[in-house]
Every structure is written in C-alpha cells, then in structure tokens.
C-alpha cells in the first residue's frame, strides 16, 4: 500500500461487525429511521450494500453525519452512504481517502522551505510497516513519525510537548530552518525547536499535536472546556522585539463563546481538560489534536499541551488575530470536539 502523508488530523474509523443477512435482506423504514433487515435480524456496525458502505447503530438504525470509533472518523451522507473523495459539508470542503478516512488538511503546512541535507524521501514500506503506531521511524539517516497504519506526518507538529518540523516527504528537520516569510528558526539535532534565529523572542505555534504515551486502546475521550473561554495571556508581535506581553492595545475580551481581539494580538485561552472514556482511573489514550479555523487568513488557531501525572491531559487553545473578520475555531481531540467564535478588529 502506498504510504500517505498526514498534514492535519487524520481520522479513521475501524470496522465493526454486522449480523448475517440472507437473500431476503431489505431496507425498512419507521418513524425513527432506516434499518437493513433480514426477517427479525438487523444490521449493526459497518455493512456494504450495493457497493456502498453504511454504518448502523447498536439499535440497528442507519447513521448519518460524522461517526466516531476510537480516534477515527468517517462521514455518512444524507443517504447514509460513506463519503469518499472531496465533499462539501456546510461551507467547507473535506477530503476522504478511498477507504472513507477523513484527511484533514487544515493545519499550517507547506509554508516552509526544507533544509534537509542530502536526499529527502519517504520511508520504505518494509521499515514503516514494522514500526509500531505513534512512534519514531529511522531509516538511512532520516527520521519520520508514524501515526498509524500507512500514515506519517509532515508540516509542523507538537509531539509530546516539543515542536518539530517535517518536510513534504515526512523527514524531520534539523538545524537552521528558513520559513517562506523569511523568518529563521533553530532546531536541534534531535529535531526539537530551540529558538528563533531572526529574533530569539519569536514563538512557534502549531495547530496539530500528538502524544505517544497511553495505557488503553480505547481512544475515546471526554472534554471539560468550562475554563476554555478565559484569557490567560495576550501578546503582540513586534518586528524587532518579537512576541511580547501586550500592554498597549485594548485587552482581548470574551462574551460567552466569542473571543474579541485586535489584529496583531496573540492569545492563550484557558486549558481544556481531557479524560479517558475508560472507567479505570489510570487509563489514558494517545491523543491526536487539531485546531482548525474556518479562515486562517483572519485568525490562525494553534494548540499547546501540558502534563498532569505523566500524561498530556491539558490542551491550551492559542489564537493569532491576522486581519479583521469573524471565524469559528474548532478543536478536534480524538474525535471529540469543542468550538468558539472569534471576532478580529483593527
């Protein structure tokens, strides 16, 4: 199988079982929706019908919209059929691979110039398939990060609390790095972001985060966003001084689920607390986190993560106001979501 690059949150739904169906199988509808039945039996989980895949709940009813299992997503159209390829949902276009897996390309990517010395190439299939999920892969002097199955990252990512940059082939970058806007950054031999070179005060924000420590295969999480709409810090960026605490412009404000800020302000919101769906207190899964703006030219959204008891249980939303306008920011954390609106003014 050809490996694919992930430049955003990649969400995949695993297969479940369906009850056996005979030659008399048929669609039936009642006031609650559609079922696919065979006498007194009905389908649940995934089932392929006339070449299309459908998903049925435990009650047997056909599902529509986004469907989640573990950390992975599919989108079921109004007909119930699983989406593949590109599909407009609301006012946004989403892309799905041939297996129906959502490929989210909304994070900051493709905006840097590679500094990899020598040949940049994807990992070999043999090497990649032998590596465990959520792990680093080394081959021929290059380092990659594997998420799962045949997917690895490129672009900028926060992995276990450190910022990394990967080129278009998924090769981790080292040393001096020049972005397309001309700003230079320094990454260590281990790939971790060290500082800005153009200005040491420059901070590097990224919209995707991954964690590698887990104690459960259940990717389901619960989010407590009750403190999210509180402002912890507001910065402004000066071309000479870099990012500084903003004491000059009007303070950013919050009204309900709406953040009001100015162009040039960089804001840290309150942390989202993440917990496992597992009932065991010690259970905690790997996390795949993405922050997505409906228009990143108006407001760029990012995330930071922090530990508690050895696990990254806290996600801090970050926001940069770039030009006047209004956007919605959505955070995806293992499929669970939360969102807020942003109004940017001069």
Automatic annotation (TrEMBL):
- Domain of life assignment: Bacteria
What is the residue range of the signal peptide feature? 1-25
**Which Pfam families does the record cross-reference, listed alphabetically?**
Choline_bind_3 (PF19127)
Cell wall-binding repeat boundaries?
43-62
Ribosomal protein as a keyword of this entry, yes or no, is: no
Task: Indicate whether Signal appears among the record's keywords.
Answer: yes
Q: Which UniProt keywords are given for this protein, alphabetically ordered?
A: Repeat, Signal
Locate the transmembrane regions by residue number. Answer: none
> What's the protein called, per UniProt?
Cell wall-binding protein
């Amino acid at each position: 199988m050809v490996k694919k690059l992930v430049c955003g949150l990649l969400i995949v739904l695993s297969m479940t079982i369906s009850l056996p169906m005979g030659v008399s199988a048929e669609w039936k509808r009642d006031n609650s929706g559609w079922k696919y039945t065979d006498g007194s039996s009905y389908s649940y989980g995934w089932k392929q019908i006339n070449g299309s895949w459908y998903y049925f709940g435990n009650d047997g009813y056909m599902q529509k919209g986004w469907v989640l299992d573990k950390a992975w997503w599919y989108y079921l159209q109004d007909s119930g059929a699983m989406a593949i390829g590109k599909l407009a949902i609301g006012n946004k276009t989403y892309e799905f691979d041939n297996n129906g897996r959502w490929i989210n390309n909304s994070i900051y990517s493709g905006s840097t110039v590679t500094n990899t010395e020598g040949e940049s190439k994807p990992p070999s299939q043999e090497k990649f398939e032998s590596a465990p999920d959520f792990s680093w892969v080394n081959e021929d002097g290059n380092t990659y990060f594997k998420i799962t199955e045949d997917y690895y990252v490129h672009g900028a990512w926060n992995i276990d609390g450190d910022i990394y940059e990967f080129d278009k082939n998924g090769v981790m970058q080292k040393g001096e790095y020049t972005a397309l806007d001309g700003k230079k950054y320094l990454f260590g031999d281990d790939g971790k972001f060290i500082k800005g070179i153009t200005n040491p005060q420059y901070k590097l924000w990224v919209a995707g985060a991954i964690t590698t420590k887990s104690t459960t295969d259940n990717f389901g999480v619960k989010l407590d966003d009750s403190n999210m709409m509180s402002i912890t810090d507001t910065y402004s960026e000066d071309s000479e001084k870099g990012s500084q605490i903003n004491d000059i412009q009007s303070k950013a404000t919050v009204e309900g689920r709406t953040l009001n800020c100015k162009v040039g302000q960089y804001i840290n919101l309150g942390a989202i607390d993440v917990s496992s769906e597992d009932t065991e207190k010690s259970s905690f899964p790997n996390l795949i986190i993405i922050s997505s703006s409906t228009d990143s030219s108006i407001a760029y959204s990012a995330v930071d993560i922090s530990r508690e008891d050895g696990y990254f249980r806290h996600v801090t939303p970050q926001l940069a106001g770039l030009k006047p306008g209004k956007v919605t920011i959505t955070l995806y954390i293992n499929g669970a979501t939360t969102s807020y609106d942003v109004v940017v003014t001069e």
